[in-house]
Design goal:
The protein is mainly alpha-helical. It has two domains: about 1-55; about 60-180, no CATH class. The protein contains six helices and two strands. The protein has helices at about 25-55, 60-75, 120-125, 130-140, 145-150, 160-180; strands spanning about 95-100, 115-120. Helix 2 packs parallel to helix 6 (about 160-180) and helix 4 (about 130-140) packs across helix 5. The longest helix has about 30 residues, at about 25-55.
Length: about 180
C-alpha cells in the first residue's frame, strides 16, 4: 500500500484513483502547501546563488581557482616522490608546493612548472626546502624549462576575472580527466 506524501502524515492508504498521492483532502491541502514552499525555497536558493556570484571580487575568484589548481597539482603528482626530499609517493599526502612563493610571485601562482607535489614536512616546516626543491625541479622539468621559469618570475602578470573564470574551468576539466584515468 502506498504512503501519504504529506510529510506530517505518512500513513498508508488505499488509492481511489491511480494518481492519488495523499490519503485525504486535508493532506492534499498540506501537501500542496509543502510543494509551494519547496518551490519557493528552490527559487530563493537560485536567486541567492546569482546574488552571491554577482558580489564576488577578484580575490574570491583567485581563492576558488587556487583550491582547484592545488587539487589538480596534488592529484597530478600523487604517484611522484616529494620534489624536495624525495620521500616516496604513498608515504605522504602531497601539498601543492610552489618553488617561487605564490604570495610574492603572483604571476607564477597558477604556473604548473612552479608548483609540484611536496610533503608537508618540506612545504610547511622547512618553508619549501627550496635548495632541494631546485634540484628536484631541474630533474623533473629539465634545465630549459627551469631557466624559462626563472625568467617568467620577473614578468608582471595581473589576472582579470574572466581569465580566472576560464582557468577555473580549465583546471576543473584537467582534474576531472586525471580522476577518470588515474
Amino acid at each position: 500500500m502506498p504512503k501519504c506524501k504529506n510529510i506530517e502524515c505518512k500513513r498508508e492508504f488505499e488509492k481511489k484513483r491511480y494518481n492519488q498521492l495523499v490519503c485525504s483532502p486535508q493532506c492534499a491541502y498540506a501537501y500542496q502547501k509543502q510543494q509551494r514552499e519547496k518551490k519557493a525555497k528552490t527559487e530563493w536558493n537560485k536567486k541567492k546563488k546569482e546574488i552571491k556570484e554577482s558580489l564576488k571580487t577578484k580575490k574570491d575568484y583567485e581563492k576558488e581557482l587556487q583550491v582547484i589548481f592545488n587539487s589538480y597539482i596534488r592529484d597530478r603528482d600523487k604517484h611522484q616522490p616529494c620534489i624536495s626530499c624525495g620521500a616516496s609517493a604513498g608515504t605522504f599526502t602531497p601539498n601543492a608546493g610552489h618553488y617561487y612563493p605564490a604570495g610574492t610571485y603572483k604571476n607564477l601562482r597558477f604556473d604548473e612548472d612552479n608548483t609540484h607535489g611536496q610533503c608537508v614536512h618540506c612545504n610547511q616546516h622547512k618553508h619549501g626546502n627550496l635548495n632541494e626543491y631546485r634540484f628536484g625541479l631541474e630533474k623533473r622539468i629539465g634545465k630549459e624549462r627551469l631557466e624559462a621559469l626563472d625568467k617568467r618570475r620577473l614578468e608582471v602578470r595581473k589576472y582579470t576575472i574572466p581569465e580566472l573564470i576560464e582557468l577555473k574551468v580549465i583546471y576543473k576539466d584537467k582534474l576531472k580527466k586525471l580522476k577518470e584515468y588515474g
